Amino acid sequence: MMPTDEELIEEINKGSQAAMEVLVKKYYKSIFSYIYRKVGDYHISYDLTQEVFIKMMKSINKYEGRGKFNNWILKIAVNHCNDYYKSKTFKNRTRETKLEDSMSENNDKVWDLLKKKIERNLVKKEILRLPDYQKDVLILRYYHDMKLKEIADITESKESTVKSRLRQGTCKLKKNLLGGEDIEKRKRRF
């Protein structure tokens, strides 16, 4: 028959190492689970659980047997977690995490800006390779946000011609940007 918590505590107070091991084994999983759910990090939870049991051992002679031992040790765990959240260790770790997240976000932003600039330069280069009549239509439409009728007036062309040049120029541009592969073939693969 398994000894009660009070019997184990009595043995521990007499110096029994075995009784201490039995008591720790009995409550370890429960305390670790509580701390892990509260903290959310396995390694930190492991360390805090060890510290809770050290605190328990240092103050076990103060346990008066009023109420359940389980509640007493859980109270130690709750207080220890609260102390951890107030500690410099937690605050430094939180600051480091925020700094890492911020650096990561900044790196992402820098990369996004660089990527956009590279893409813009590539598009500009490919537009310059188009025939003048297609180049003019694309530039006026996409860089100057002009309507087809306005482009027709400026280029002294029919609206249908502008529409055709815009479509042809856009298709050539897409084909060149995608490495010469036909857009329709590429779409079918996806």
Written overview of the protein:
Helices cover 82% and strands 0% of the residues. The protein contains nine helices and no strands. The longest helix has 42 residues. With 190 residues, the chain is an all-alpha fold. The mean pLDDT is 80.
CATH superfamily membership of the largest domain, which one? Answer: RNA polymerase sigma factor, region 2, helix turn helix motif
Q: Helical residue percent?
A: over 70%
Which sheet architecture does the biggest sheet show? none
Distance between the termini: 67 Å
The global form is rod-shaped
Instruction: Please state the CA-atom Rg, rounded to the nearest Å.
Output: 36 Å
What CATH architecture of the largest domain would you give?
Orthogonal Bundle
CATH topology of the largest domain: Rna Polymerase Sigma Factor, Chain: A
- Topology, number of strands: 0
Q: What is the percentage of strand-forming residues?
A: under 5%
Instruction: Indicate the CATH class of the largest domain.
Output: Mainly Alpha
Helical segment count: 9
Structural class: mainly alpha
Pfam family, one: Sigma70_r2
InterPro entries: RNA_pol_sigma-70-like (IPR039425), RNA_pol_sigma-70_dom (IPR014284), RNA_pol_sigma70_r2 (IPR007627), RNA_pol_sigma70_r4_t2 (IPR013249), RNA_pol_sigma_r2 (IPR013325), RNA_pol_sigma_r3/r4-like (IPR013324), WH-like_DNA-bd_sf (IPR036388)
Domain RNA polymerase sigma-70 region: 23-88
Organism: Senegalia massiliensis
Tags for this model:
single chain, 190 residues, mainly alpha, Rna Polymerase Sigma Factor, Chain: A, Arc Repressor Mutant, subunit A, 2 domains, rod-shaped, RNA_pol_sigma-70-like, RNA_pol_sigma_r3/r4-like, RNA polymerase sigma factor, transcription
